[in-house]
Design goal:
The complex is a heterodimer. By secondary structure, chain A is α+β, with helices and mostly antiparallel strands. In chain A, about 50% of the residues lie in helices and about 15% in strands. Chain A has 2 domains: about 170 residues, no CATH class; about 190 residues, no CATH class. In chain A, helix 2 packs antiparallel against helix 10. Chain A is elongated. In chain A, about 45% of the residues are buried. By secondary structure, chain B is an alpha/beta fold. At the A-B interface, helix 1 and helix 8 of A face helix 2, helix 3 and helix 4 of B.
Chain lengths: ~375, ~250
């Protein structure tokens, strides 16, 4: 082991190429992961911000918040299953918002949510009519506490009274107000979609614990099948494009990991071939194949750790440098650690291709041709 | 007390039996469908502090004999006893342990680890074998001193002369206090003057420690310094018997 580390210290030039290539791969892997997480976060923040386990859509909405409508009688049926205190209404409308000082066509895409139970990061009390909390990313569009936004063609005014983090929805910044605010803005800007008192788009249900799936089925039975109740995770997957986005990115990430594996395999196979004579000598003086292979593995791990460290640092710098709301990039500890783990796994598997060659080195080759 | 003294003391602990005994050793290689007999009924004994020169043409089997004596190859038939230990039926794992503790090698092209200093090249033996830590470091320093390399302990092989590299290789072969040291053409890459120095060094080091050596060679200078010459032809060993001591110097 010490032999392997000494070689790296004394002959760093031998490992530069592999380290540089693996560093680029590590950065690519972490950037791709960060973009996936950023895109997902930008699409799903509003749902993840719910402090509830279930979301109830109307069955004919095909699990879409925009198309869903829940009437008071359906709500009663849901409350009959789980209790009224665990049920809260939710409504949304996607509009263009005009900010003070911006041009008449300079619209910021927003989603106004009306809520009864506060999402994570907001006080329990629902704001008064005409007042909203804004997603933090809207600061990049000049929104500040006290700003008045004029929503939609009707230019319905809402005043921002505070901010919450990570609550974007389908790539747009969100505004959070009372159900009354939502209903009035919807009626003013989408007359065809106006809803009566007591009607909401969806219900959120809390306090189901580990029995979320069973509760969901009980709710749908109780409403006679006019509802489609999903866990929050299922609702996130049902958002348009989210599952497809995740699949595509994960496939690219998978290919990148395989490329890392191939790079390590080729590089250390080459190094092992170069060392055949040296391994012959070391085996002749008593080195075991396992010890020699452990040295190769250690070198691969060290190269990977250096590459990963640079990748992690670059991801954190990028995350800190990009302004909120511009590039959808998030460097999360989970993503960075999983990327490092994938790279280490790829390096170990890649290295294993050299094992056979190390095992095949004949110590007798050290002292002649064998005859 | 020098390492040589220690080795002598080690030798005095019991009656010095032969360093190597080979009886009826055969080695057959399968090359495609053909069997090639590399060694055929070899009987050979090397005394505890004897230097044997093994000479023969290319392909005669001298490297195979050396490899079997050093536990790098197993014989197809026959018995091999090194330092009182019968290694004839050893598994590869047992042979590895045997090599760690009982034999030393000096290779034709020296083959030092290029990125290690002279001292570290000696300590490689400790690193790949059972770790002795401080004792190994002390022995390495002592060997370097006795081989005249104290001032070069921190030098890499590329910074050493051919003779110095050969000394380091000899030091590495002696690190594990072996019963037998095998030299593979130790002077083939050296000029006349340096070759002569190395041969005298080998003889002095082996004799001062009472360690047996087999030197595979084509070089007449070595046969002059050897206690005995064994000639090998087509896998058969013909023992030329002891040389007259007066001819050595």
């Amino acid at each position: 082991m010490r032999l392997a580390l000494r070689e790296m210290r004394r002959r760093p030039g031998r490992f530069v190429v592999a380290t540089v290539i693996l560093t680029l791969i590590a950065m690519l892997l972490m950037f791709l992961g960060g973009l996936l997480d950023g895109l997902t976060a930008g699409s799903t923040g509003a749902l993840r911000a719910q402090q509830d386990e279930l979301i109830v859509y109307s069955a004919n909405s095909r699990d879409s918040l925009v198309r869903s409508r829940i009437t008071p009688d359906v709500r009663d049926a849901v409350e009959g299953v789980v209790g009224p205190e665990r049920v809260a209404g939710l409504g949304s409308v996607q509009l263009g918002a005009r900010t003070k000082g911006a041009g008449p066509r300079d619209l910021v895409s927003v989603v106004l949510f009306g809520y009864e139970r506060a999402p994570r990061g907001l006080p329990d009390a629902v704001p008064e009519a005409g007042r909203v909390y804004a997603d933090d990313s809207l600061r990049a569009d000049g929104v500040r506490a006290g700003s008045v936004l004029r929503l939609g063609p009707a230019r319905s005014p809402v005043r921002v009274i505070g901010f919450l983090e990570d609550s974007r929805y389908l790539g747009q910044g969100s505004l959070w107000g009372s159900l009354d605010t939502w209903r009035s803005v919807l009626a003013a800007n989408r007359p065809g979609e106006r809803v009566g008192d007591g009607v909401v788009q969806a219900l959120v249900v809390s306090g189901t614990g580990a029995d979320a799936q069973a509760t969901a089925e009980a709710v749908d039975r109780a409403t006679g099948g006019v509802t489609s109740t999903l866990t929050i995770a299922q609702a996130i997957d049902a958002l348009p494009g989210v599952a497809q986005q995740r699949t595509v990115f994960n496939q690219i990430i998978g290919v990148t990991v395989v490329i890392a594996l191939i790079v390590v395999a080729l590089f250390f196979a080459l190094i092992t071939v170069e060392r055949t004579a040296l391994y012959g000598v070391l085996k002749a003086i008593g080195a075991r194949s396992g010890t020699l292979f452990a040295g190769v593995l250690l070198q691969a791990v060290v190269v990977t750790i250096i590459a990963s460290a640079v990748g992690v640092a670059a991801s954190l710098v990028l995350d800190a440098a990009i302004p909120a709301g511009s590039i959808p990039f998030v460097a999360t500890p989970e993503r960075l650690l999983s990327s490092v783990a994938y790279l280490l796994l790829a390096a170990s598997v890649g290295c294993a291709f050299s094992l056979r060659r190390v095992l095949r080195v004949d110590p007798a080759s050290a002292i002649g041709s064998g005859l | 007390m020098s390492v040589a003294d220690t080795d002598r003391e080690k030798g005095l602990a019991g009656p010095p039996g032969p360093a190597l005994q080979m009886k009826g050793v055969r080695k057959i290689y399968n090359v495609g469908d053909t069997e090639v007999v590399a060694l055929d009924g070899v009987d050979l004994t090397v005394g505890a502090d004897e230097i044997l020169a093994l000479v023969g043409p290319s392909g005669s089997g001298k490297t195979t004999l050396c490899s079997i004596a050093g536990g790098l190859l197993t014989p197809t038939e026959g018995a091999v006893v090194v330092g009182g230990e019968d290694i004839s039926g050893y598994s590869p794992r047992q042979l590895t342990s045997f090599r760690q503790r009982s034999v030393g090698f000096v290779f034709q092209t020296v083959n030092l680890v290029p990125f290690l200093t002279a001292r570290e090249n000696l300590l490689v033996v400790d690193e790949v074998g059972p770790r002795r830590g401080a004792r190994a470091r002390a022995r390495a320093d002592q060997l370097l001193g006795e081989l005249g390399l104290t001032g070069w302990a921190g030098s890499l092989p590329a910074q050493l002369s051919g003779g110095q590299r050969q000394r380091v290789a000899i030091g590495r072969a002696l690190m594990n206090e072996p019963d037998l040291v095998l030299f593979d053409e130790p002077t083939s890459a050296l000029d006349t003057e340096l070759g002569d120095q190395v041969v005298r060094l080998i003889r002095d080091e082996m004799k001062s420690r009472g360690t047996a050596a087999i030197i595979v060679t084509h070089d007449d200078r070595i046969t002059r310094y050897a206690d005995r010459i064994a000639r090998i032809t087509d896998g058969h060993v013909e023992d030329s018997g002891p040389r007259h001591r007066a001819r050595r110097s």
